[in-house]
Specification:
With 275 residues, the chain is mostly beta strands. Strands 3, 4, 6, 7, 9, 10, 12, 15, 16, 17 and 18 form an 11-stranded mixed beta sheet that branches.
Length: 275
């Protein structure tokens, strides 16, 4: 007797794929494919850097969704990725968790900038987010992420994040954090410390000479950031703040001390998210 097929798993399954190549002294995009909520827009290049904006075409991730972004900068290519708006994790029609996986790869002498708008963990959502980054020894990375725990006047949902970075096949950074209901101590002094906005910047550059560790912000109640040199050469900036405006101020302040902004190609014109 043949068993009945398993019912389809609830939720949306979608993948966006981006590949940047170096051709005739500039960066081209032979692969630019998105489905589901991902609409990939090629924006005006900056020098030999190709730029792509990821536009969300529907509410996602919802409970049960499985979303993935894959981006590769081939040897000598320069790629910058942004999102058009904040990503809001919502509960949706099912209590099942959703996943949002990002996989970034930068080959020899390539550079990759990942500069999305914030992720907002809305009440009763359940999101598992991961970002895996593979870097060649001569690759450059500028990675920036911001997270908001709950919309205005509401608690956050369940949020699990993991950032894993390898350089030349060796671990550079591996961090795993849980927030919201069921996560022990997430709102205590060791993690969020009562703040709603969290962010970090990871910079990896072969010629980088990271400064010494430094703390920014005198009053923990109004948010603080810390700059930490990593073996790589790399540096990590982490920040906590009551809202996104203060968070961005702290991240920008620490970043300016770490490296001149014009050398990083960072866009400071992104609009703030209402807190």
């Amino acid at each position: 007797m043949t068993s009945a097929p398993a019912p389809p798993r609830p939720g949306l399954h979608a993948t966006a794929r981006i590949r940047a190549n170096r051709t005739d002294g500039t960066t081209v995009l032979p692969v630019l494919a998105g489905d589901g909520p991902f609409d990939l827009r090629r924006t005006r290049a900056h020098g030999d850097q190709a730029r792509v904006c990821i536009v969300g075409t529907m509410s996602a991730p919802l409970g049960g969704d499985r979303l993935r972004i894959e981006a590769i900068a081939e040897p000598g290519a320069h790629l910058r990725l942004t999102t058009a708006a904040a990503t809001i994790a919502l509960r949706g029609p099912t209590t099942a968790h959703s996943t949002y996986d990002v996989h970034l790869t930068a080959a020899e002498h390539a550079s990759l900038h990942w500069l999305p708008q914030p992720l907002i963990s809305a009440a009763r959502s359940n999101l598992r987010q991961s970002c895996t980054i593979d870097l060649a020894p001569t690759a450059r990375l500028h990675f920036r992420e911001e997270t908001v725990l709950g919309r205005a006047g509401e608690p956050p949902g369940r949020l699990t994040t993991r950032l894993t970075v390898h350089r030349d096949g060796r671990p550079l950074l591996d961090q795993h954090t849980r927030y919201g209901p069921g996560a022990p101590g997430w709102d205590g002094p060791a993690i969020a410390a009562g703040h709603r906005a969290l962010g970090q910047i990871l910079i990896v550059r072969p010629e980088l000479d990271p400064p010494h560790a430094r703390l920014f912000g005198d009053d923990p109640a109004t948010g603080q950031a810390v700059l930490t040199p990593l073996t790589g050469p790399a540096l990590l900036i982490t920040a906590l703040a009551p809202d996104t405006l203060r968070l961005r101020h702290l991240l920008d302040l620490a970043q300016q001390v770490a490296e001149p902004l014009e050398l990083l190609g960072t866009d400071r014109t992104t609009a703030p998210v209402a807190s």
